[in-house]
Model the fold of this input.
Amino acid sequence: MTTLPEHAVRRCYSVVNPIHSTVYFSPEIGREFAAAGLDAPAAVYFANRAAPLGRVGAGAVTATFYNFKHDLVALHVPRIWETLSPEEALGVRLRAVDSLLRRLLGEDVLGSKELAEAAELALRAAEACARPARPLYAANADLPVPREPHLAFWHAATLLREHRGDGHLMALTTAGLGPLEALVSHTASSQGAAAGWVRSSRGWSEEEWAAARGRLRDRGLLDDAGGLTASGEKLRADLEDETDRLDAAPYEHLGPAGVARLTELAAGLTAAARAAGAFPAQIFAKR
Done:
């Protein structure tokens, strides 16, 4: 039995995760990796996110990232490690995050007691994350915690994101949603990003996307216009409930008061980051 209010896990995660996710849309990450020799956006993404796994090949990245077409992954991995080692990529990543958060939040916020408290709470929650069957979380958990509070908070947000993400893949697999079906059904929901951007950034063709839509229609999950049916809405809701269940341990460990306080603090940080332009509007516009 949970001790937390209903949907408290999801509410907390929804305001902690954006601080991690800012890095994927920042000019800083592109500049830092370009200076290190990588400039293709997909190569930058794979080096940034896969570096904690070590010098892995395309198969490991495809398996753990789940919704990228293997052909796109194999175009860049393991070749990226010929340009810079995973250890070097981790250093590049942290430099980019440092510059990014200084720009988005400002020096006053970075030096505030509130940010230090948020970092402490998020790290405490992450103490209860589990390594088994969660490879991306486990790899990041082996990294040292940065000393600066803003970087420590980003690190903790990364741990919580990858822990939840690894669990979400378990739920997707159980529900019979492969990589493309997961993407198509998510972009059809009210929470999804723009389908065209998602499809192209993950390396899928329009024909493959259309075929996945057809499979979902055959299952009664999509209507003829590409929107979710009532059954599709229920499946997506059930997936999030199951993901919450699999992701509850860190927040149970923090306790109701700690979760409420982390949610409050992280909501302020995320609001400030959004106001500073952290997320490109065109990517999240439905089209």
